[in-house]
Amino acid sequence: MTTLHQGAAARPGVDRSLAIFGWLVFAFLYLPILVVVVFSFSSSESVGKWGGFSLRWYEQMLKNEQILNALENSVVVALISTAVATVIGTAAALSLDRYRRWVGRGAFDGLLYLPIIIPDVTMAVMLLLWFTSTGVIPLGRGSITLAHIAFNISFVAIVVRARLAHMDPAMEDAAADLYANRWQAFRRVTLPLIMPGVLGGALLALTLSLDDVVITSFVQGPGSTTLPVYVFGLIRRTVTPVINAVSTLMIVVSMVLVLASLTIQNRTGRRTESKGTDQ
Amino acid sequence: MTDKTPAVSLHGVTKRFGEEVVAVDNVDLQIQDGEFFSLLGPSGCGKTTTLRMIAGLEFPTEGSIRIFDEEMGLRPPNKRPVNTVFQSYALFPHMNVSENVGFGLKMQKVDGSEVRRRVGEAIDLVRLTGMERRSSKELSGGEQQRVALARALVNRPKVLLLDEPLGALDLKLRQTMQLELKDIQHEVGITFVYVTHDQGEALTMSDRIGVMNQGRLAQVGSAEDVYESPENLFVAGFVGEMCLLPAVVTEPGSVRLQSGEVIWARTSSPKGAEVTLTIRPEKLHIYSAASEAPPHRNALKGSIVRQTFYGEAMVYEVQIGLADLIEVRVENSPRIRRWSMGDEVVIDFHPEAAMALGE
Amino acid sequence: MTLLDERKTAEDEEVNPRLERRARRQESWRGFFHAAPAYVYLTFFFVLPLLIIFVFSFASRSNTGKPLLENWNLDSWTRLADPLVRTIAVRSLTMAIANTVLCLLIAYPFAYWIATRARQRTRTLLLIAVLIPFWSNFLVRTYAWRMLLDSDGYITQLGQLTGLWERMLFTQPAVFIGLVYGYLPFMILPLYAALERMDWSLIEAGRDLYASGSKAFRRITLPLSKPGIIAGSILVFIPSLGAYVTPDILGGAKTNLLGNLIVTQFQAARNWPFGSALSGVILIVMLVATMLYFRTGGRTI
After folding, report:
1. Which terminus of chain C has fewer Cβ atoms in its 10 Å neighbourhood, N or C?
2. Is residue B230 very low, low, confident or very high in pLDDT (cuts 50, 70, 90)?
3. Looking at CA atoms only, how far is residue A102 from chain C in angstroms?
4. What residues form DSSP beta bridges with B70?
5. Nearest alpha-carbon partner for B190 in B216, B241, B156
6. Rounded distance, CA C5 to CA C2, Å?
């Protein structure tokens, strides 16, 4: 990638209006989030009124049994579903990128994309029908985790696959040539090189799992409500400033996750970009 | 050839990609133990595929590959007694120099102190002493190339495979590395199979060369054989500079050019056959008149139509009659006479220097 | 297992030189083996559940609202022709299309602006700034608008002052704003990916060959960014066709969309077969759109 894109930005007038438009879009993207964060520190009982700085809503949040319980459910489900989906999704990415010809590859390739684009409501409905009609797995933390794994596999697979596509296939040839068997070649060469992709996929899975509302609300059982589902219930009934505090917490968590992901991609990305391959 | 076991032998090896593409077409080849053997050819001629099949990175569609008389079959690369220097070097970017070099030994479960000793030796051999801890991406192209070489040699393979290892280096470095590679091969005494598209490189380094074209071996022979006695037009045109002139055999040992002149030439084609006359530009001499030229040789009258300065040499294009153009290369030495455009000259060459090849 | 295989291969090689086919079969098995966990998992927790929707759409309802798998019938599917359902479906479709178009109109110049920043560092920083809302909780982002549009909020006051709108919350425009806000990042990212990958020297070549700025854009940039446009449109269109959270929070009871209608069937109305038939419709639209996408050769989701 060259650093100069002169061809695209030839006319200063066009460029200036693009820039103004660009910053307006950023304002549109950020202002609502900022409002929530700011008002989470307001002491006023009314959600949209500023009543002076206070941490009372955070205090209330931390004292609320239900919120803490929901938070625990969220974390447990997110960690387990991420771990499982990362392993399965990485294997799936390997099968698509490294093995060009196998029976069912085309169908598998298409199938992997479906959980990404399917509307939440549809996936929620079908999993509810599945769990209740088969009756093998009771609705609860277990069913929520299984549902989260189902959509996370695809996201992990796509992120890892993108990373694999950038990897020089000669690396694996070299490992095999140097007496590594398939497992050793994967463990010592492939895995370290795609690690940024694997971690990035895992962080995305973690975020999606922590964020999911619709699917979880369908397949949850008594006492297994997750934090977003609990908040959703609160919003539907009445809007209280505690929601601002919980929302701020969730925004902070996603920001930490996205920044962590980018740092990993960037740092290890720079380290693994082989200089030898550019001729 | 039969008294020693060949290091590598290919028997009827064919590789197809899909239904249409034949990358390697029924190749038979024996590479002797201790030999520096080059596979030379234009890109897409199947030389790299052949090398990858020896390494075990691809499997032949048909045929058999033996290494020291052992059938390789579907044996994976990690179980073959060969190592490869890859075109892109393929150094592991997450390891430093000595980790890269020691990788193969570690995979073979060689004892730790032994690994250290042999890695040290290999790094000394390629003159990278002191750079053990460098990350592989901090190295220059030439250094990376040396690491790749050490990484392969440290395993003491029976055969070393090199896939255009100097392709990414600049000219000066390439020439130095050519000599060094040759020295290293001498020192370790193992068989090198070297893939290159650079005919100069193949000529300077190899004991024998296999010239490949469109998946087939066009000629196998010593550097001198391939250069002096090309067996077909492809080899004649691909290896070195060559003037090609259409001609007809008039009687054994002589041919007639398009311009009507009859000259002596080596030929095995029958009388009346249409052939191509091949002459190396450096084997021609220019004189101002026929009387100056030595007797009993070929002499052709013509005029100079173009001259190109190459530094160490001058190349003149001489028009013979109406149809034929011949290039003459004259070394740029102080006593040599310079010609200019339009000069009427006589070009002279030994009958042995001209060779007529049939289709 | 492979060791034995190899020894056998080496022996009968002379007789049967067709090694490659065996090598390819081994590769094929390895590929399948890697995919197997995901394949099995998605079969059990995606494909079969997806099919069961269609099974239940033909089921009947007991008096208590429990779906019964006897008495197969087409009731749920015929109910789709109900004028009320049709109105909701048309409204959802219009909303999804309008949302996709508006997202595209906003996201394209925006992504183009970021992708044409000269310095790599600037581009990276701007991209991070896009990623943060993209990764932020969808529910929280929708809730933010619930706050902004509240009856005593500034936006409502502005509307009352100018006389343009009396109230915003729980209206169709509010849902629309929420949808655009929610799905905009899904359009920006694939567009950015397509534009950033582009070889800008092509534009220079186009300009060099006397194409005007707008002509170069239409003839070169636009066609080359088509994969991004298609990917982004699918990522926005299909989820917004089934949107539920946004209309639920911002639309109140008034704006009923397909997503809400489906959820109602599974909760208050307890008509699972009809809810299944509605989901089936969305699934069919999704499968057709995905196939069209793969037909055009796209891969960049």
Report:
1. N
2. very high
3. 4
4. B67
5. B156
6. 5
Q: pLDDT tens for residues B156-213?
A: 999 999 999 998 888 888 989 999 999 999 999 999 999 999 999 999 999 999 999 9
Full DSSP string of A213-278: -HHHHHH--TT---HHHHHHHHHHH---HHHHHHHHHHHHHHHHHHHHHHHHHHHHHHHH--STT-
H or E, element range at A134: helix A120-134
C22 closest CB neighbour out of B12, B15, B74: B74
Q: Do B62 and C17 touch (CB under 8 A)?
A: yes
The candidate with the shortest Cα–Cα distance to C219, out of C229, C228, C230, C207, is C207
Contact between B73 and C9 using a beta-carbon 8 Å cutoff: yes
How many whole angstroms from its chain centre is CA B85? 17
Give the bridge partners for B22, in sequence order: B16
* Residue contacts between B and C (CB atoms, under 8 Å): 41
The verdict on a CB contact (< 8 Å) between B78 and A180 is yes
**Structure-token pair, residue A266:** 């960037």
Q: Which two tokens stand for residue C177?
A: 């704003």
Q: One-letter amino acid identity for A147?
A: A
DSSP B79: G
Q: Which of B76, B103, B167 sits opposite A178 (nearest CB)?
A: B103
Nearest chain A residue to B89, by CA? A276
ipTM (interface pTM): 0.87
What CA–CA distance (Å, rounded) separates B2 from C56? 77
Q: What is the reported pLDDT for A11?
A: 65
* Region for residue B15 given its phi and psi (left: phi exceeds 0; alpha: psi -120 to 50; beta: otherwise): beta
Interchain proximity B78–A174, CB inside 8 Å: no
A9 at C interface, C-beta within 8 A: yes
Q: Which residues pair with B254 in a beta bridge?
A: B251, B264
List phi, psi (to 5°) of B81.
-80, 40
Strand ordering across the sheet containing B344-349: B285-287, B344-349, B298-309, B313-320, B324-331
C19 touches chain B (CB under 8 A): yes
Could you identify the residue written with the tokens 């998946």?
Answer: B215
Asked if C143 and C176 count as a contact pair (C-beta separation under 8 A), the reply is no
CB B315 within 8 A of CB B227: no
Judge whether A129 is closer than 8 Å to chain B, CB to CB. Answer: no
Look up residue B205 and give its amino acid: M
HSE-up (13 A, CA, CB side) for residue B298: 24
Q: Which amino acid is at C10?
A: A
Cβ C68 vs Cβ C149: under 8 Å: no
Q: Considering the entire predicted model, what is its pTM? A: 0.85
User: Which of B63, B71, B76 is nearest residue C10 as measured by Cβ atoms?
Assistant: B71
Is C20 an 8 Å CB contact of chain B? yes
Plot region of B80 (φ>0 → left; ψ -120 to 50 → alpha; else → beta): beta
